[in-house]
Amino acid sequence: MSRPLPDAADEPWRQNLRGEHDALLQGARPDWWWTGLPPTDCPGRQPDGRLTALPAPNLATCTRDEVLAVFDNGWTLTEVLFAGLQGEEAFYRPPYHHLRHPMIFYYCHPAALYINKLRVAGLIDAPLNPYFERVFETGVDEMRWDDMSKNAMLWPSFAEAHSYRAEVYATVRRVIETHPDLATGHAPLGMDHPLWALFMGFDHERIHLETSSVLIRELPIALVQPPDVWPAVHPSAAAAATAEFPPRAGADYPVARWVDIPAASVRLGKPRDWPSFGWDNEYGERRVAVQGFRVEDQLVSNGAFLEFIQAGGYLEPRWWSEAGWAWRSFRNSKWPCFWVPDGPAGLHRYRLRTVFTIVPMPWAWPAEVNAHEAAAYCAWRSERDGHPCRLPTEAEHNALRAPAWAAEDPAFRQDGAALGRDTGWNLQLAWGSPWPVDAGTPTAAGVRDVFGNVWQWHGDDFNPLPGARVHPYYDDFSTPCYDGQHQMLLGGSWVACGDEASVWARFHFRPHFFQHAGFRVVQAEHDGGVVRLGAGESGAQVYEDARMVDDYMVLHHARPEAQMPWPAGPRGATGFPQRCADWLLKGAAQHASGTARALDIGCAVGGASFALARGFDAVLGVDLSRAFIDAASTLQRDGRRDYVLRDEGELGDTLSAVIDPTLERSRVSFRQADACSLPAELADFDAVLLANLLCRLPSPKSLLGRLGGPRGLVKVGGLVALFSPYSWLEQFTPQEAWLGGFTADGRAVRSGDALKAFLTEEGFVLRREEDVPLVIREHARKYQYIVTHGMLWQRVR
Length: 797
Known about the structure:
Four Helix Bundle (Hemerythrin (Met), subunit A), alpha+beta, Rossmann fold, 4-stranded antiparallel sheet, disordered N terminus, 22 helices, single chain, paralog of FGE (formylglycine-generating enzyme)
């Protein structure tokens, strides 16, 4: 029966609970649910009726029917997974942490990407639903665990989303059935072929099959039930019901043993001619001389992790990094996310939440934790065992692999059922859960689950391999994450499919993120050649430095005579943020564009945001830098903030920035966000400011593409002020993503010309154009003098 419509006043997401589809979304799904093939007709169906994942297509030899089979397999697996959602609320309730979109987004996101990428590749000519292809285009990279400012928007209804998926299925299938280069005997389909976008869609959908399963696992258990054809939970879950408490090492969970791994030379990177789809970060090459190390022969089990909890692991800051302890404290975490307390906390009795069920705790299964928890466990083990323990590095993970795997790539040859049965890898939905840490087939050295079961956290920052290049169809897939804030994941999980199940996969998430991920422990006196991205390698990290914050406080809030004290200097270049804001304030009056809402993208420490509040009712400033946002938020909250005006070396004066008390600071708010991946709820602003930002983005077109179109950042009639010196640097922007500053087909490509062509095509008209200087003080005798190209655009359609 339909539930009554709740009051959405306190929880804005509840406005999406229309009530009209609630009864339809209960229980097993009837025939109308399937927008592609039903499971009974789907490739990958096993004798017991359940589905498993097919391997990725061989792009050198695949037939049209084989490509169709892989497409249908992934599409139906997605709909099987979502068939486990019960009722309308399951589609619209945000996750408990409010850091990701509700499931309705992930129901349509893979479909929208198919259309957008097929258009980019020229495989289809027009959008199917421009609004859907905007609102479902970009997910959320949860930058911090305390960013709760999402999930207030009105999403499309379930019926609209279901109809859209049906349209997309028909469109993609038509491309496969008609494209001439899938005919018998076709040439190998490499990354320069337009059909690469099709295979990108296949693997993108498989990535979200996995991430959606994690989000479903975070929903209240009353909102889900296991779909009949989803792979079964591993049968070892049933045996856990008879385990004694407390669990016994060697009986209820296996005791790990140390394995000595000799020094070796390893090669990282997928060959460019390997005949499967790959993501840009997998290509390139790095050779590493790995020192010998000791590694545990199995992943850390739930039983082993319980020992850490019982030792006070979640209560002792000394075992945690600063960021890890801040996360633990904010969440008040006392045990892993998917553990369900079963009695008073002090008893340490737990059950385990799987995707669709709660089962007795399988102590022999791998502990699924985030990277902060994994690192804390290793620090505790170092203290307990008296030897330095840590997470492995990517190079060490490669040293654990059998040499034949690089030539065979088993997940490229076998479906999930065969991988589990014949190879002993729990990958590609061999099962619907992890299995015990001693169940997989060991390597010759005796190490299990090098691949499969759960992803494994590693100590490296996610990083590009030398020679890697972004792909023009998806230039913001990897590069925004080469920021020192994303940690490497390798090995794949039980639900990893396609390319993510391959031996070439290099995955990543922020360290507080939960995935089907665990870890293993390495013991060594050396660091394993760990890769960390410092400020010199990661553009984003530059703007987290305390001195950089001081420099920008001067730029945004210091008096003109402090910004440029020299009479012979360019004093007219001071007050840059305020002058940029003035373009929009004057433009709003001149062009009647409205003054309700303004968005300052790349707001830094907020100088322009506060200036905009003199004429706009509400101003939102967003920036990638947490340090900048913290400084701006302090100014908004307290009205003042101290900073250092550098003089020479360590010398300088401490000054205080004070916001004009006549300004209503409540009009201004600040939020950390990635300009290349802005949340879907940001739309329809009267004015948008992009000041000194574009040439510091890994994918400028990702932001520019959000300005117009359906649910664009700028409303029709609204203004965007854009200022850039076009200082393109590979440190910040891969050369393939530069707007200009290069030669193509024998002619110079200028960034300003490219911007004009792009924005004109997007429905904007140029209203003002000037050279706008700025000066950045570094210390009393050193300054950066920059001349930006300023343009004011108005959206007319």
